[in-house]
Every structure is written in C-alpha cells, then in structure tokens.
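Forum > Structural Biology > Help requests

Title: Can anyone predict the 3D structure of Lecithin retinol acyltransferase?

Hi all, first post here. I have the sequence for Lecithin retinol acyltransferase but no way to get a structure on my laptop. I'd be grateful if someone could post the structure tokens.
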Amino acid sequence: TMKNPVPQAASLLLEKLMLLVHIRPLPAGSGGETPPPAPGYYDTSCFKRGDLLEVPRTLFIHFGIYLGENRVAHLMPDILPAITGDRRQIQQVVTNKRLILGVIARTASVRVDTVEDFAYGGSILVNHMDRLFEDQVLGSEEAARRAEKLVGTTAYSLLWNNCEHFVTYCRYGAPVSFQTDKFCETVKMIIRDQRSVLASVLVGLASIVCLGLAPSTTLPTIFIPFFLWMAG
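Reply #1:
Sure, ran it for you. Structure tokens for Lecithin retinol acyltransferase below:
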C-alpha cells in the first residue's frame, strides 16, 4: 500500500509557512522574544562593505547586505510602517507578531540594523551565493549603494519581493529567490496529488494570506482536488 501523503505534505507546508514569515524559533520554555546577542558577539573585521550576508536558520535562510560599521541592510515583513510614521518605533527589533502581521498586510521595510540584530544568534556566511552567479557579481560599492537607496517601506511578497530578491538585486543586478522556487515546487507537488486533499486546501488558504493571491483565482485551485477526491 502507498503511504498516505497528507501528514507529510501538511508538515512540509507548515515548515514552508514558517519560511514565509521568517519566524525566529524560541527556546524551549521561553514565554517571549529571545533577545539578540550583545554587541561585539560577531567579528565584523572580516566583512567588507557590499558583502552579501547569509544566515541559515532551521527552516529558511535570511539575507542582508553589509554596509560597513556594523550595519546591515535587509528586508523584513513588518506591519508598523503601515500604521505609524514613528521611526523610533519602527527601528526597534521586529517581533514575531510584527512579522506575521506584516506578511498578512503585505508590508515590509528595508531596514538597517546591527549585525547582532540581523543575525539574531545565527552563524553568518559571507558571499556564499557568489558561486551561483559567477560573472554577474557587481562591485561591492555598487551593491552597498543599491541597498542604501532601497532603505524604507516597501511591499512584501513571497513571490516577488522578499529578503532574497532584495540582496540578489543589490549584488547581482537581478532579483531572484531560490527559496521561493523551492516553495512553489512544493505547492505544485501537493496540489497535483489528488490524495493530499487536506494539504491542498491548506496550501490554497495559505496562498491567499501569504502570497496575496485574489480569492477568485485561488479558491478554484483549493477545491478542485477536493471535488475530484469526493467524486473518486
């Protein structure tokens, strides 16, 4: 007998949704946000202005452009820019609640934080993506200037404007996201399998919230596998 793919697909979908909203994992027993490491936790002497910094998490990778002097420009979903103009509030470290609401509202900001706030305790890879773009790497100063010009409020979209799109545009001149490609392939795999009806419904509902798809285009995708299953 073939293994029921629904639990596996639903689990995979949950992981991908955590990728969408950039949720920071909290330590066991923690009731609130984990504080970022103290200043000086990272050795920034090996970073150069214009470097692409990559922080692997458990379920996703976060990206930023190093601007020098312990400053990193990175794109994050955030609800606050949509409801207030108070720069002091907006500049505070983004909490998980702000992240999730920012994804739902499709609002983000390209912000400048310290390396500690950007990495949040994770290990940092420097220019790890250069190998994928070979001769497309722009000059370091050009990459940094592009990042600085984009600082401020922007729209958020998993498909068209996430943190990976931001850094690849700055350093390589073309906004692409390999994480998005993987997510889309996962969605296609789940929806094509008529047996994973529950997961297909979850994918469709999640796409309305996270991808910003109109219900008129998404609902048929949700329920076609369901009707096929009912008829089958």
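Residues 25-31, 211-232 have pLDDT under 50 and may be disordered. Residues 85 and 153 are 10 Å apart (CA to CA).
Shout if anything looks off.
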